[in-house]
Specification:
This protein has helices spanning about 25-30, 35-40, 50-60, 80-95, 120-130, 150-155, 170-185, 210-225, 260-275, 290-295, 325-330, 345-355, 430-435, 455-460, and strands at about 5-10, 30-35, 60-70, 100-105, 135-140, 155-160, 190-195, 230-235, 250-255, 285, 305-310, 335-345, 360-365, 375-385, 390, 400-405, 410-415, 415-420, 445-450, 460-470. With about 500 residues, it is α/β, with parallel strands linked by helices. It starts with a strand and ends in a 29-residue tail after the last strand. The model has no long low-confidence stretch (mean pLDDT about 95).
């Protein structure tokens, strides 16, 4: 039997502490595809939708490609952008129905101007068209904030198990294979959600140093050996959003025919208790002063020293224009280095006007909010390259998908090549640097705006990795923030006996 399945994507991780907003221009700068544009751009890629296409073709579905929208993490999604994307999705669902099932790739931490749970807001709109009876499967980022309503709107949920997120395709495949089993009548899936009383947990979900998340994932895999437990998803949560459900959560997809809800709840409870047991394990970045001291004391070695500007990570919605780390590197005399990607469209425009080879004195960075991360930095440098910013991800994240940093330049200041961009982009792929002619392997020091994803591509060429907090928006010290919507009490903001 051929099953008609709608395939949809709507992804944004929304930081509610930024002065920025996420609008249609941000989605178009990343990607916004409709209908047949979706398989043309996603087939064979390392993405959730790429995995869905793989299963659709293997299982003989009649896939109906609706919309696929993604924006880099930023501020709250504007109502105009939400309405445009949702409206297009709903229109195409009406025109192409009925459906036997639905697959939706979400992040799980989207906030809109009209709902603190933008993902459920979107799923409600889908359910209003397709009805409540057909199975709906979702994929989620490991840093999802999950509200209880999710279990009423979806029957299947599978989250990433890696950070850096290098298993996007595999997660899409897993969710859609469960969806196919539901369509074939082999299982009757249902979703259950539990959460410990925490804002911080799972060491932010890192899976590269055999920390808490690695142990938790082993526990989840063991729980999935129980007949009827179809999937156990662990989300570390997203602390940069002031929403009720921020923090770690456990989602259990179970088969209502072969296991009772109490057993699924007990499974979720055991994982929550295990997360709680790791509450004091947190791998914090080092202060900027210590970072520079280590760079100055370093001896030549094979490979680059990679410095991660943790708190100015655009992948968490930070401004990506903080200058404190670059300024400290210049003052410290660090040479044969590259830094990026610094967001400053105004500086890019000015440098493009001067052209390649020009020596220019100007202010770079610090323009979004001068009170964060060092403010504007006055420099004199030489324009080394100008680019339109287009590239293709080579992996291991987003493999094969197109990307763009917007119009971009390389400005050499003293011994540092600074990549300045018009569109924010986390430094998670070597091809981002290469957009402006910087070959990462040739540099003794690479300063990247990222928390963890950079490790997927840069760890193999690194002689050492240093992670520093240079005063950006996304500091790991959550006690510096004022949460007004977050459920209370939660660790570590409140005293909790346990």
């Amino acid at each position: 039997m051929t099953h008609r399945v709608a395939i949809i994507e709507f992804i944004n991780e929304s930081n509610t502490f930024t002065v920025m907003r996420t609008g249609m221009a941000d989605f178009r700068a990343s990607h916004y595809f409709k209908g047949d544009e979706i398989p043309a751009n996603f087939r064979g890629t390392g993405s959730e939708v790429g995995g869905a296409i793989e299963v659709a073709e293997a299982c003989g579905w009649q896939p109906v490609y609706i919309t696929a929208a993604h924006a880099e993490p930023n501020g709250t999604v504007t109502e105009a952008a939400r309405a445009e994307i949702t409206g297009e999705c709903v229109r195409r669902l009406h025109e192409n129905g009925p459906f036997d099932g639905v697959f939706v790739a979400l992040h799980g931490a989207m906030v809109t101007e009209t709902d603190q749970d933008g993902d459920c807001q979107f799923l409600r709109e889908i359910r209003a068209v397709v009805g409540d009876e057909i199975p709906l499967a979702i994929t989620l980022d490991l840093h999802a904030n999950i509200s209880d309503e999710t279990a009423e709107l979806a029957q299947i949920a599978v989250s990433f198990r890696t950070y850096p997120h290098v298993d996007m395709r595999e997660v899409g495949v897993e969710a859609c294979e469960l969806l196919h089993r539901a369509l074939e009548g082999e299982i009757e899936p249902k979703l259950l959600i539990r959460r410990p009383p925490m804002l911080l947990g799972c060491d932010d979900g890192r899976t590269t140093e055999n920390g808490p998340m690695c142990h938790l994932l082993k526990d989840a895999a063991n729980e999935m050996q129980t007949p009827g437990i179809l999937n156990v998803a662990i989300n570390a949560g997203f602390t940069d959003a002031d929403v009720w459900a921020a923090g770690p959560s456990v989602l259990v997809t179970y088969d209502m025919v072969s296991i009772v809800s109490e057993a699924a709840a007990a499974c979720a409870g055991r994982i929550c208790d295990r997360i709680w047991s790791f509450r004091d394990h947190w791998d914090l970045p080092i202060p900027l002063e210590e970072c520079i001291a280590q760079l100055k004391a370093a001896t030549p070695a094979k490979g680059s020293i990679v410095v991660a500007d943790f708190s100015d990570n655009p992948g968490s919605g930070a401004y990506s224009d903080c200058t404190a780390l670059i300024a400290a590197m210049l003052e410290g005399g660090i040479e044969n280095a590259a830094a990026g990607a610094l967001y400053d469209p105004q500086a890019v425009s000015q440098l493009v006007t001067h052209g390649v080879g020009a020596e220019v004195t100007l202010s770079i960075g610090g323009k979004t909010d001068a009170s964060v991360g060092g403010g504007p930095l006055q420099v004199t440098g030489t324009v080394r390259a100008i680019s339109d910013g287009s590239f293709t991800f080579e992996g291991p994240m987003f493999t094969g998908l197109p990307g763009s940093t917007g119009q971009s330049v390389c400005l050499r200041v003293q011994g540092i090549d600074i990549m300045i961009v018009s569109d924010r982009m986390q430094m998670l792929d070597k091809n981002v640097f290469r957009v402006v002619g910087i070959e990462p392997a040739d540099k003794a020091v690479l300063a990247v705006k990222s928390m963890q994803h950079f490790k997927g591509t840069f760890a193999p060429i690194a002689s050492r990795i240093i992670i520093t907090d240079a005063g950006g928006l996304c500091t790991p010290n959550v006690k510096r923030r004022s949460y007004t919507h977050l459920r209370r009490p939660v660790f570590p903001l409140d005293e909790i006996n346990g």
